[in-house]
Amino acid sequence: MTVPGPPLAAIAAALREQRERAGLSLTELARRAGVAKSTLSQLESGAGNPSVETLWALAVALGVPFSQLVEPPAPPVRVVRAGQGPLVPSERAHFTGSLLAAGPPHGRRDIYVITLEPGPEHRQAQPHIPGTVEHLIVAAGRVRTGPADQVVELGPGDYAAFAGDVPHAYEAMEPGTWAVLVMEHR
Amino acid sequence: MTVPGPPLAAIAAALREQRERAGLSLTELARRAGVAKSTLSQLESGAGNPSVETLWALAVALGVPFSQLVEPPAPPVRVVRAGQGPLVPSERAHFTGSLLAAGPPHGRRDIYVITLEPGPEHRQAQPHIPGTVEHLIVAAGRVRTGPADQVVELGPGDYAAFAGDVPHAYEAMEPGTWAVLVMEHR
DNA sequence: CCGAGGTGTTCGTCAAATCGAACGATCTGA
DNA sequence: TCAGATCGTTCGATTTGACGAACACCTCGG
């Protein structure tokens, strides 16, 4: 999984970056957000595990959405290797399920089965409409896919999700490669 | 742009909703996330102000993005562009794509990878909430599935969709059977 | 020279979040 | 009916985050 742990360092970096971008001093931001400047200092230094309340106040004072502080570098590609996803209750024997992606409250998801054969790089010429997210689960073979600058290689059972509204590639590495593609657009 | 206050109640509601949607008990979710169930209980009851670390662990265990827990009231403003028809294989030059099912304008689809092993007995899956539709694409092996009175056998690449709110079976016919399951519920 | 006002950091204290254990309430199978 | 296993809640003990007051440092201006 690409989820090492709590993005404490990421929050620290995002806080400092957003604060400097807003041209605020640590003291001033702390005053506006109503938090102690000592708290903010420790947060920016990477130490500490802020509460939602505290982080929310800082986000409001900075004028940025909450999610931008906790997920600053929106992971362009989310990969779940085979057998690495969180397991879903196996209410029955002989059945193990791995939840790859929860459905958004609204939006559509179209289900495809795609087959690819090795050859010249198959770069998608035109991206899809904005907001599109593609989910790919390789059934057999190997596929190199992802945004142009972050291509990952997937094997059977591997899962990857990435934005579909930017140029991205689909390249089969072996004959007989096929996969399930769920295209989500909001 | 300043929203009223910390979405404590929203987080509580989102936690409970996502947990029930994943079919997890409070105890089980707490165990997987590595947090005390007492903590989770208080969070879902609206009391408490979770730390980022705690909330992150819960988000990972639930398989949902962090932001979905803190910003559940996503703006229902959604535009499905007119004329945005389903993609056909001819539009995707370098591989063949087969549209299996178009997503409903509202509702959600959760993506799973499931592995099944043959057993001496197979029990029927418990029905899900009304309106649930299951889409299954077999990646490897063979699966007998479908409503109790209409069981079909699927091989690699085969696709089947059926109502999930009636008793239905999942039975692997070969070792190493796995498939992609998209569970759709409105 | 030296106080005034600013920066960000470190310290002790207190409230609160988290934890572990025990609780009553359901169920299920013996 | 009872033992066992769940469910979710509540309770006290402990950890820890948030606070406020100092702190060292820097830059002006009297």
Would you kindly provide a written description of the structure presented here, covering whatever features stand out?
2 copies of one chain form a homodimer. Chain A has 186 residues and is α+β, with helices and mostly antiparallel strands. Chain A folds into 2 domains: 8-70, Orthogonal Bundle (434 Repressor (Amino-terminal Domain)); 77-84 and 107-185, Jelly Rolls (Sandwich), CATH 2.60.120. Helix content of chain A is 25%, strand content 32%. Chain A contains 5 helices and 11 strands, in the order αααααβββββββββββ. Chain A has helices at 8-21, 26-33, 37-44, 52-62, 66-70, and strands at 77-80, 87-88, 95-101, 108-116, 122-123, 133-140, 143-147, 152-154, 159-163, 168-172, 177-185. In chain A, strand 7 (143-147) and strand 8 form a beta hairpin. The longest helix of chain A has 14 residues, at 8-21. Chain A is elongated. Chain A starts with 7 loop residues before the first helix and ends with a strand. The interface between A and B is large, with 75 and 90 residues. The structure holds a DNA duplex (30 and 30 nucleotides).
